[in-house]
Design a protein that fits this description.
heterodimer; A: mainly beta; five-stranded antiparallel sheet; 11 strands; B: four-stranded antiparallel sheet; about 0% helix; about 60% strand
C-alpha cells in the first residue's frame, strides 16, 4: 500500500527562523497530499492541500511544495512564531479509495 | 458552517468492558466519515471510513467495529476493551474523500 515517511521527529527553532519540514511518499497512483497541524489536546487541523496538478499550496504564511521527481513534499515558513509550536503531519490520500496515510509527525518547538 | 461533535470527551474503562464512542456532523449532508486512533505522541491510524448510511469499510483490524446509523452520525464500539485500545479517538469528515476535518477527539484510558 501507499506510505509516507516523515523523518524529522523534533525541530527546535527560535522566533523568526526559517522552517522546513520534509515528507517523502510511495504510491502507485496519483495522490493528493496534505499538511495538518495539531495543537495539544485537540484534533488536527487542515493546513494545506497540495495536488500533483498545482505543485504548491499557501496558507497562514505556510507554503507547501511538491516534487514529483523525488516523490517528496515540503512544508516551509519564512519566519516562525512561538504560536506555531505544534505537531505537523503530512498525509496522503490514495486516489479513489478514501484511505488516508499519515506521517509520524514533526514536533515543532519555537523558542521566544 | 459545519460542526463536528464527539462524545464523550473522555472515558476511563476497565479491560474487558464494552465501549461506545459517538460522532455527529451538522451542516453537511452525505459527508464521508472517518474514525482514527492516535497513541499518545503518535501518528494517526485510520480505522474505518463510511461514504453512505449503513455502509462502513474497515481499514485496520483492532477488535473494534463501526456503524453509521444516520447520515450525520458515526459510532465506534467494541464489546471487550483491551489495554491497547487506550489513546485518542478522532472522528473526521470530508466532502469528497480528500481533506479531512477533525472533531475534538475522545481520550480513552483502559485500566
Amino acid at each position: 500500500g501507499d506510505s509516507v515517511t516523515q523523518k524529522q521527529g523534533q525541530v527546535t527553532l527560535s522566533e523568526d527562523d526559517f522552517l522546513f519540514i520534509n515528507c517523502t511518499y510511495s504510491t502507485t497512483t496519483y495522490p493528493t497530499l496534505f499538511w495538518y497541524v495539531q495543537y495539544p489536546g485537540q484534533g488536527p487541523q487542515l493546513l494545506l492541500k497540495v495536488t500533483t496538478a498545482n505543485n504548491k499550496g499557501i496558507s497562514r504564511g505556510f507554503e507547501a511544495t511538491y516534487d514529483k521527481g523525488t516523490t517528496s513534499f515540503h512544508l516551509q515558513k519564512a519566519s516562525v512564531q512561538e504560536s506555531d509550536s505544534a505537531v505537523y503531519f503530512c498525509a496522503l490520500v490514495e486516489a479513489n479509495t478514501n484511505k488516508v496515510v499519515f506521517g509520524t509527525g514533526t514536533r515543532l518547538q519555537v523558542l521566544p | 458552517a459545519q460542526t463536528i461533535h464527539q462524545w464523550p470527551v473522555a472515558e476511563i474503562k476497565a479491560v474487558g468492558s464494552p465501549l461506545s464512542l459517538g460522532c455527529t456532523i451538522k451542516g453537511k449532508s452525505s459527508p464521508n466519515l472517518y474514525w482514527y486512533w492516535q497513541a499518545t505522541g503518535g501518528t494517526l491510524q485510520q480505522l474505518f471510513y463510511s461514504i453512505t448510511v449503513g455502509q462502513v469499510e474497515s481499514v485496520v483490524q483492532l477488535n473494534l467495529s463501526a456503524s453509521r446509523p444516520k447520515d450525520d452520525q458515526f459510532i465506534l464500539s467494541t464489546e471487550k476493551l483491551l489495554l491497547s485500545h487506550s489513546g485518542f479517538y478522532l472522528c473526521a469528515w470530508s466532502p469528497d474523500g480528500g481533506e479531512q476535518y477533525f472533531g475534538p477527539g475522545t481520550r480513552l484510558t483502559v485500566l
